[in-house]
Structures are given as C-alpha cells and as structure tokens.
Amino acid sequence: MLINNSEGVFRPGNFTAILGPSGSGKTTLLNFLSGRLLSTNLEISGRLLFNQQSVKDISKYNRVMGYVQQDDILLATFSPYECFEFSAKIRLSESPDVITDRVNNLIRDLGLEKCKNTWIGNNMIRGVSGGEKKRASIGVELLINPSMIFLDEPTTGLDSSTAL
User: Fold this and answer.
1) What is the model's pTM?
2) How far apart are the first and last CA of the chain?
3) Given the DSSP bridges, would you call strands 49-50 and 53-54 parallel, antiparallel or unpaired?
4) Which of 3, 91, 126, 154 is most buried by a 10 A CB count?
5) What is the DSSP code (8-state) at residue 39?
C-alpha cells in the first residue's frame, strides 16, 4: 500500500511540497494527479476535485498542467532556445512572432541568456550546467502558461546554492 486514507489541497498561488522517504509513493502520487499514471496494477479509489469540480478524466486537464520529470529529457544537441522554440511550435497555436517573443521572455525570466545558444549536453557532450538544464526543463513546461506545474524532485543532482 503506497497511500491510504489521505487528503490534501493545493491552494491557488501557493507552493506545495510533498515530502517522504524513497519509495513512499511521491512520484506515483504526482503521476496520478497529473494524469500520467501508467501502471495498471494499482487500486485507486477516492475522489479528485479540480476547482471544486469532480474530475472523472484527468487527461482533459492536460492543457492546464505542466509536469517536469525528475530526469531531464531534453535533446542534448538542442540549446535552451531551440528546446523552447521547438516545444512552443508544437504545443501552441500562436504566430511565429508571438512564439519568438514568448521564448525570448522565458529565456530572460529564467536567467538563461548567457547559455541560450549552448547545447543542453549529456554525459558524452559538454553542455549547460545542471542548474541551467533544470531551468530549461521547467521552461519547456512554463511555455504553455500552466495553471499548475508539477515538479518531481526539482533539486535532485543540484548543489545547495543552485537548488535554492
């Protein structure tokens, strides 16, 4: 049993953290709340409300939710700018000028100006720092201007200064 007899509320405009030891079900809960739960061997019961409305199919809310996985999944040979631009072109129905403005504003807001044209990198390709990579991953989700964003272990792999 991962979670039993629990309830919680995410209030608008607030940061909410889910804390617990490894294996306690934090990621499973986030996956469930965001409609990304892929497991078929879990028994799920209870009710889920969104803006005080009962939710029967969470996937209908995907357009208002962002989700950043624990492991960054950005293309190593894309720069943060290219990641944002590519995601925006796929996910937004805006004009090219609006997309460019949105991408540039997000690059500025996330403090990625100095590395906006540097490859993301991976274990074989030198790229941006861990903090820059994490902010780029978050930025990809912020592009859709979500009402709510789920961050699965956003500080994993970062030093304490960068995590802050």
Assistant:
1) 0.84
2) 33
3) antiparallel
4) 154
5) -
How many CB atoms sit inside 10 A of residue 24's CB?
13
Amino acid at site 102: R
Question: Which H or E run contains 151?
Answer: strand 148-151
- Which candidate, 124, 125, 112, 123, places its Cα nearest to that of 85? 112
Torsion angle defined by CA atoms of residues 121, 37, 16 and 158, in that order, rounded to the nearest 10 degrees = -20
Mean pLDDT calculated for residue range 63-90: 91
pLDDT for 35 beyond 70: yes
Q: What is the pLDDT of residues 111-120, one digit of tens each?
A: 999 999 999 9
Query: Which tokens in the block code for residue 119?
Result: 């490859």
pLDDT in tens, 84-105: 999 999 999 999 999 999 999 9
93-131 exposure pattern, b = at least 16 Cβ within 10 A, e = fewer: eeeeeebeebbeebbeebebeebbebbbbeeeeebbeeb
Cα distance between residue 153 and residue 44, in whole Å: 23
DSSP state of 148: E
